[in-house]
User: Which sequence fits this backbone?
C-alpha cells in the first residue's frame, strides 16, 4: 500500500475567492495523468465491495483498472453498461456513503476517489466524442415514460436498449429534472448534463418537452396508446413550514429560488430575462443538498452574509461532506440548533432580506390530483409493489415520486429496476 500512495491525487479547484464570483464548476477535473495515478492506487479487490455498495452495481473495479492502463475508451464503455450518466453521477453521488465508504484502501489510507474518476471518464468521452455503439433489436411495443429526471432517464435507456419504442414526456422545456433545474452549474455544469442526455435522442427515444401529463395529456389517454407506462415525476413540490410570513416578498421556496437561478439563469440577468431578489442578509432553512445549493447560489448572487439555519448541528447535515466544506470555504455561516418552529422553546429575531425555506419537497400535486385512480401512501407518494408496479396494471413508478426524495443514484437504480419489470410484464 505504501508504494501505491496513501493520499488521493488532489483535485484542482477554483479558489473560494474566485469561485464566489462565478457559477463555473468548482472542481477542475483530473488530467489523464492524474486520473491514471489515482486509478493505480486501487488494489483491485476481487470481491469488489465498491460495486456491492453501489445502488446500480457499477463495475467500478473494472472501470478503474482500464483507467489505470490508460484505456479510457474501454473504461467509459464499462461505466456506461450500468450507468447512463457517469459524468453526472460522478459529480453528485454521495460516494463517501456508498462505494468509497467500503473501499479497502480506505481502511488504512484515503479511499480511491471513485466519484472523480467516474466524472473524469464521462468528461473524457464528451471531449473525445466517444459514444457506445448500440445494436437494437426493435420491438413493436410502446412505453411512455413520464418525467426526464434520473429515474425516467435510466428507465428510458434500458427499455430502448431492449428494443421498445419509448416516448418520454417532460413538463419543462428541457430534459433532466433536478439535474437541470435544481443542482447549480458550479456543482454540475449544464453542458455535461446536455451532453449525457443527448444520448437519449441518439438512441431513438422520442422526447416530448413542454408536455405535462395530467394537463396536456391525461394518464388514461397514455394508457390507451402505450403498452406500459413509467412514472418518474419526482418530488418537485415544496414543503412549507406553515408559519406566518411565508407569503412575504423575499421569502422563497427552494424550487422557486433554484429554478430562477439555475434553469432561468437569473444570475446572468438581464442577458437572461428572469430576475431574482437576493438581499444582503440571506437565511436558508435546513442543511441538506437543497439548502447548501441555495446558500452557495446566494453567495454568488452577491449576498454579504448567508446563514444556514439548522435544527441540528453541522456534523449531522445530510448534505455531502464536500458540499458543506465548500460552503464553509465560501463564507456560508452555520447557525446550529435553531428552528423557526420554536423547538428550543425560546425565540429570537433575525433580520434577513431574503429567506429560502429548503425543508425539502413532496410529489407534485397537479399530477396526483388529476390521476385520483393512482393509489398513494399516507404521506403522499405513489404506492408501488415489489416490482415497482402501481395499483394500475402496466403502470410503474420509481425515483422521488415513490420515495419522496432520495438521491440521483437511487433514482437511476429504480428506473433500471422498473425497466426490467416492464420488460417482464410486456414479454409475459
Ligand atoms: P426529478 O429529478 O425530480 O425529475 C422529475 C421530472 O419529472 C422533472 O423533470 C419534472 O419536470 C417532470 N415532471 C413532473 N411532473 C410531470 C408531469 N405531470 N408530466 C411530465 N413531466 C413531469 N441527489 C444526489 O444524489 N446528490 C446531490 O448532490 C443532490 N443534490 C440535490 C440538490 C437539489 C437542489 C435537489 C432538489 C435535489 C438534489 N438531489 C441530489 C436529489 C436528486 O436530485 C433526486 O433524488 C433525483 O433527481 C430524483 O430523480 P427523479 O427522476 O425521481 O425526479
Assistant:
Amino acid at each position: 500500500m505504501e508504494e501505491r500512495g496513501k493520499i488521493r491525487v488532489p483535485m484542482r479547484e477554483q479558489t473560494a475567492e474566485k469561485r464566489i464570483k462565478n457559477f463555473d464548476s468548482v472542481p477542475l477535473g483530473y488530467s489523464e495523468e492524474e486520473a491514471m495515478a489515482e486509478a493505480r492506487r486501487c488494489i483491485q479487490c476481487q470481491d469488489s465491495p465498491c460495486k456491492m455498495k453501489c445502488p446500480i452495481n457499477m463495475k467500478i473495479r473494472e472501470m478503474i483498472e482500464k483507467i489505470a492502463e490508460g484505456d479510457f475508451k474501454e473504461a467509459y464503455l464499462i461505466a456506461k453498461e450500468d450507468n447512463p450518466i457517469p459524468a453526472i453521477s460522478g459529480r453528485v453521488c454521495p460516494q463517501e456513503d456508498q462505494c468509497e465508504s467500503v473501499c479497502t484502501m480506505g481502511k488504512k489510507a484515503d479511499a480511491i476517489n471513485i466519484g472523480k474518476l467516474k466524472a473524469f471518464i464521462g468528461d473524457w468521452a464528451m471531449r473525445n466524442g466517444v459514444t457506445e455503439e448500440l445494436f437494437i433489436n426493435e420491438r413493436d411495443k410502446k412505453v411512455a415514460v413520464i418525467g426526464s429526471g434520473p429515474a425516467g432517464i435510466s428507465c428510458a435507456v434500458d427499455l430502448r436498449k431492449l428494443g421498445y419504442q419509448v416516448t418520454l414526456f417532460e413538463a419543462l422545456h428541457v430534459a433532466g429534472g433536478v439535474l437541470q433545474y435544481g443542482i447549480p452549474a458550479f456543482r454540475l455544469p449544464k453542458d455535461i448534463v446536455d451532453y449525457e442526455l443527448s444520448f437519449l435522442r441518439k438512441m431513438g427515444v422520442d422526447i416530448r418537452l413542454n408536455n405535462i401529463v395530467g394537463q396536456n395529456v391525461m394518464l388514461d389517454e397514455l394508457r390507451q396508446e402505450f403498452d406500459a407506462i413509467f412514472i418518474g415525476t419526482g418530488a418537485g413540490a415544496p414543503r412549507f413550514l406553515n408559519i406566518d410570513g411565508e407569503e412575504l416578498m423575499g421569502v422563497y421556496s427552494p424550487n422557486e429560488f433554484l429554478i430562477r437561478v439555475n434553469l432561468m439563469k437569473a444570475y446572468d440577468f438581464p442577458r437572461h430575462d428572469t430576475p431574482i431578489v437576493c438581499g444582503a442578509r440571506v437565511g436558508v432553512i435546513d442543511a441538506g443538498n437543497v439548502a447548501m445549493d441555495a446558500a452557495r447560489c446566494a453567495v454568488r448572487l452577491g449576498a454579504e452574509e448567508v446563514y444556514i439555519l439548522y435544527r441540528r448541528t453541522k456534523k449531522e447535515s445530510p448534505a455531502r461532506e464536500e458540499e458543506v466544506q465548500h460552503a464553509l470555504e465560501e463564507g456560508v455561516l452555520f447557525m446550529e440548533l435553531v428552528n423557526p418552529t420554536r423547538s428550543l422553546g425560546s425565540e429570537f429575531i433575525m433580520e434577513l432580506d431574503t429567506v429560502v425555506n429548503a425543508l425539502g419537497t413532496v410529489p407534485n400535486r397537479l399530477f396526483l390530483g388529476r390521476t385520483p385512480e393512482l393509489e398513494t401512501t399516507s404521506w403522499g407518494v405513489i404506492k408501488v409493489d415489489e416490482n415497482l408496479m402501481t395499483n394500475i396494471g402496466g403502470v410503474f413508478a420509481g425515483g422521488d415520486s415513490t420515495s419522496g426524495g432520495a438521491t440521483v443514484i437511487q433514482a437511476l437504480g429504480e428506473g433500471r429496476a422498473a425497466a426490467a419489470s416492464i420488460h417482464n410484464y410486456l414479454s409475459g
Q: What stands out?
A: The chain has three domains: 16-127, 142-236+363-426, 238-360. The chain has 17 helices and twelve strands. The mean pLDDT is 92. The first strand starts at residue 142 and ends at 146.
